[in-house]
Amino acid sequence: MYSSQPDIPADFFYTLYMKPLELPVNIRVPRIDEVSSDPIMLMRMKARESAKIVEGYAFRGNDIDEGEPYTIFSEINIDNSRLWALFERLAEVVCYPRMKLLYKNIDDENQSNTEYVETKEIIAKLAKYKTELTQDGFLEFGLFHKDEDVLIVLYVKKGKFIQHWGMDAALFESVMREFSLEHIPDLNYVDQYPLITESLRQYNPDVLETSEVIGYLKSSF
Predict the structure, then answer these.
(1) What is the pTM of this model?
(2) Which entry of 56, 76, 89, 208 is 20 to 30 Å from 186 by CA?
(3) Would you call 160 exposed, middle or buried from its count of C-beta atoms within 10 A (0-12, 13-18, 19+)?
(4) Which of 146, 145, 142, 143 minimizes the C-alpha distance to 134?
């Protein structure tokens, strides 16, 4: 029987009804008057309207980095108000007792790193500035371990989602269940699309500037 109903993509209602990801107040989608009229830019703005930028995680094995000693790679979206809690829990569960701290101002070419330090000590020192670390879109930071057999990385990107390279899928997925995060293979991320990042200090006068946080990290480890 003929139907005049249009074909609807299988994930249309999924995208429509999933709650949009909560971002820091200083990271947002640009208005149309804030982007150029370049066709590619406008196409990316349009594509974002149907993107799956929601809580969840994508997950794969090591099928592209031959020779790198990790078995799983994941990227995780979580509401910004829950980002620190997830980072702290993953550090406890999937990281080694001693890790290196990585940190970077995205305007700088070079990334800084410490020597191996007790992971609990790193987390305790970072916690003093968790607002800046989880909301300042000019800051990236994470934990790192590598030897001949193992690569473990837990890293917060400028768009405030988490990347994880690791070895134990069961442990990782147990944390995802704790936080009620679903596996979404075609998950999208804010930095795949046009984005406006403003100074966090504009919205919260009590926070440190990016350079001040970097200075604190340099002097603390």
Answers:
(1) 0.88
(2) 89
(3) buried
(4) 142
